[in-house]
Write a structure and sequence with these properties.
- Helix 4 packs across helix 5.
- This protein folds into 3 domains: 88 residues, Translation factors (Elongation Factor Tu (Ef-tu), domain 3), CATH 2.40.30.10; 130 residues, Nucleotide-binding domain of ferredoxin-NADP reductase (FNR) module (Rossmann fold), CATH 3.40.50.80; 87 residues, Ubiquitin-like (UB roll) (Roll), CATH 3.10.20.
- The longest helix has 14 residues.
- It is globular and about 60 Å long.
- It is α/β, with parallel strands linked by helices.
- The protein contains 7 helices and 18 strands.
- It has a 5-stranded parallel sheet with strand order 9-8-7-10-11, with helices on both faces. Strands 13-12-18-14-16 form a 5-stranded mixed sheet.
- Its cofactor is [2Fe-2S] cluster; FAD.
- It holds the Pfam family Fer2.
- GO terms for molecular function: 2 iron, 2 sulfur cluster binding; flavin adenine dinucleotide binding; metal ion binding; oxidoreductase activity.
């Protein structure tokens, strides 16, 4: 897709809008909360990253926001080298962190707790609710280091002015003191507790959206459950830097049951069967890439679900999982970016969705 505009949101974040040709409008239609996978060859290496859509479904273009990650290959490229008129490979929208479909008659109360770049998918949701549900209210609690690091600050201020009675925005800053102590520090369990009881009202929340680092999500999820919000109405997406090191090290199993020798893996992709040999410790997706097979993947961190496949035969060891539902695991689905063979022969099917 061709880049239509690039906007510097903060010193460390940009938003990039892509032109959508008329014949691809349907392919790139999306549900608020979904993401795009961008692909670029950087220094000769095939690099893919997932970035949440921050625009409204009613906009003519489709926009994502990218925040700088220390040592991040794609984020550095985006902040320093992209320009209007450039073209980037963009996969169609994906993702399960979605805004439940509403109607003009609905009078729902939504609450969102976001930190840093976790605002990106929430931004799309906020706009959709304000545009499509005239009787609904959205409460946003947004954590950052300081006011200069608030992504979409001007846009949020504009929306707040236009929808005074339907949008409430509260900024929580960890390195900039504000008048009320409640708005200083991080989004901890205690703060979230106060926000729910004193600001929103614990009995009125219909859906909660959580997006940011794992500790914030877990704190918010537990607090919301303690206040009787059903788990199926608590929607979350983990935001950690996919290309800034290994954010999952603490979550990996201490002992892997994967085989310590070469294993045969057969994979079905777009109707074609490919047979490869995996080296010890190699994931299925890494083996596919080494063999030149165009298997789907994006984050390689167990979060985005792009590399989901079904194990047809054999067994695999999946190191981490932040995106598959329990029923999917029971049905045999795995994230191939995290999966290594436990048996000498494994067959996975990417087409069985």
């Amino acid at each position: 897709l061709k880049i239509k505009s690039v906007h510097q949101e903060t010193e460390e974040a940009v938003s990039i809008a892509f032109e959508i040709p008329a014949d691809l409008k349907e392919d790139y239609s999306f549900i608020p909360g979904q993401y795009l996978t961008l692909r670029e060859f950087i220094n000769g290496e095939d690099t893919r990253r997932s970035y949440s859509i921050c625009s409204s479904p009613k906009d003519d273009d489709i926009r994502v926001a990218i925040k700088k990650v220390e040592g991040g290959r794609f984020s550095s490229f985006a902040l320093n080298h992209v320009a209007v008129g450039n073209e980037i490979d963009v996969m169609t929208p994906m993702g399960r962190f979605n805004l439940p479909r509403g109607t003009t008659e609905d009078a729902r109360v939504y609450a969102a707790f976001a930190a840093g770049s976790g605002i990106t998918p929430i931004m799309s949701m906020v706009q959709a609710v304000l545009e499509d549900e005239p009787n609904s209210h959205f409460f946003l609690f947004y954590g950052n280091k300081n006011s200069q690091s608030v992504i979409f600050k001007d846009q949020l201020d504009d929306l707040k002015d236009r929808f005074l009675d339907r949008l409430s925005v509260y900024h929580v800053l960890s390195r900039e003191e504000q008048e009320l102590s409640l708005f200083n520090g991080r989004l901890t369990s205690e703060k979230i507790e106060e926000f729910i009881t004193k600001t929103v009202g614990e009995n009125s929340i219909d859906h909660v959206f959580l997006c940011g680092p794992g500790d914030m999500i877990e704190a918010a999820k537990q607090t919301c459950q303690n206040h009787g919000i059903p788990l199926e109405h608590i929607h979350n997406e983990l935001f950690v830097p996919a290309d800034g090191g290994d954010p999952h090290a603490a979550h990996k199993a201490k002992d892997s049951s994967a085989v310590d020798h070469n294993a045969k893996v057969s994979m079905i992709v777009d109707g074609a069967r490919h047979d490869i040999t995996l080296e010890p410790g190699e994931t299925i997706i890494d083996g596919a890439l080494r063999a030149g097979i165009e298997a789907p993947f994006s984050c390689k961190g167990g979060m985005c679900c792009t590399c989901r496949a079904k194990v047809v035969s054999g067994e695999v060891d999946m190191a981490v999982n932040y995106s598959l539902e329990p029923w999917e695991i029971e049905a045999g689905y795995v994230l191939t970016c995290q999966s290594r063979p436990k048996t000498d022969d494994v067959t996975v099917d990417y087409d069985d969705i």
